[in-house]
Write a structure and sequence with these properties.
With about 325 residues, this protein is α+β, with helices and mostly antiparallel strands. It contains eight helices and 16 strands. Helix 3 runs antiparallel to helix 4. The longest helix is centred in the C-terminal third of the chain and has 19 residues. It is globular, with a radius of gyration of 21 Å. Bound molecules: 2-oxoglutaric acid (AKG) and fe (ii) ion. The site of fe (ii) ion (FE2) has 3 residues, from loops. Homodimer. One of its GO terms (molecular function) is lyase activity. This is tRNA wybutosine-synthesizing protein 5.
């Protein structure tokens, strides 16, 4: 039995108004083609990037295999000057390396102090930021972060969700992105914000039988494409070539809903974290009852959650 699939809409030359009126309200992923991104699409060669951004140190993921695994931690964090990192990420075999001559690299840029500061390429890479025009299809005050995403050919980033709306701007290199609706969370074997199913193209169905029920939305991104990833939509990203991207997170909820300590855009909104804490207390309280009663009241609580909190306006 094949996994069900869904479409990812593709639009060309969408204006701010068209996006806001016709695409954004659907809360579905969409590929936007032909948006003016500035000179970065032609300028950002390996030589130019390394000369322009220079020797600023960056913390990177280094992996000996293409599929990074956050559970077994088959990758390590290392620091390199940006110019050295870009050159290594663009080559397949390395003369100088940390673990193996064909190791792969991934950069997710961070703020100066990642515990306090938010990634913003205008602050961390001002000379490169001049070359990119970020499509501001949202209000200025909603802006949260702009993040460099640079990866070696073949690298695959695990399925995860972020809690803010997102434009993934692919500047150079092709990518394949596989997305899942937030509603399919029960089939994704989540550990926090990430899915344990790493091999989405060939999943271990003995271990993850429900994964077959998750509807798969797949798209290819080419240089110059922008992918709208609505908040909470799961995404798995495979870089088919060495590629440079920048993603922009923006706040879709009123500012006060977000966790003020979140610098990544992936901490659950504070009301959600509080609700989960209260649920954990309720579960602890149910332990005071013998199994027969615990089961009965637990099932009634589930029904109450379904009745009171589930949305009916989902297709
Ligand atoms: O393209 C990538 O490397 C990852 C993108 C991603 O996870 C994001 O934009 O939230
Ligand atoms: Fe993400």
């Amino acid at each position: 039995m094949a996994q069900p699939t869904g479409p990812v809409a593709r639009h060309s030359g969408v204006s701010r108004e068209q996006f806001r009126q016709d695409i954004y309200p659907l809360r579905k992923p969409a590929v936007l083609k032909g948006i003016d991104l500035g000179t970065c699409t032609t300028k950002w060669t390996v030589d130019y990037l390394s000369q322009t951004a220079g020797t600023k140190e960056v913390k990177i993921h280094v992996s000996t295999v293409p599929q990074m695994d956050f559970l077994s931690k088959n990758f390590v964090y290392r620091t390199l000057p940006f110019d050295v990192f870009v050159r290594r990420a663009a080559e397949v075999k390395h003369n100088e390396y940390f673990i193996s001559e064909d190791e792969k690299y991934y950069l997710r840029s961070l703020g100066e102090d990642p515990r306090k500061d938010i990634a913003d390429i205008r602050k961390q890479f001002p000379s490169l930021a001049e070359d990119i025009q970020i499509p501001e299809y949202f209000e200025k005050e909603q802006f949260f972060s702009s993040v460099f995403r640079i990866s070696s050919a073949g690298l695959q980033l695990w399925t995860h969700y972020d809690i803010m709306d997102n434009f993934l701007i692919q500047i150079t290199g092709n990518k394949r992105v596989i997305l899942y609706n937030p509603r399919d969370a029960p089939y994704l074997y989540l550990a926090g914000t990430k899915s344990e199913v790493l091999n989405v193209d060939n999943p271990d169905l003995e271990k993850y039988p429900l994964f077959m029920k998750a509807r798969r939305y797949e798209c290819s991104l080419e240089a110059g494409d922008v992918l709208f990833i609505p908040a909470l939509w799961f995404h798995n990203v495979i870089s088919e070539e060495f590629g440079v991207g920048v993603n922009v997170f923006w706040k879709h909820l009123p500012s006060e809903c977000y966790d003020k300590t979140d610098t990544y855009g992936n901490k659950d909104p504070t009301a959600a974290s509080r609700a989960v804490q209260i649920l954990d207390r309720a579960l602890k309280t149910l332990e005071e009852l013998p199994e027969e009663y615990r089961d009965f009241y637990a099932r009634r609580m589930v029904l109450r959650i379904q009745e009171k909190a589930y949305s009916t306006n989902y297709e």
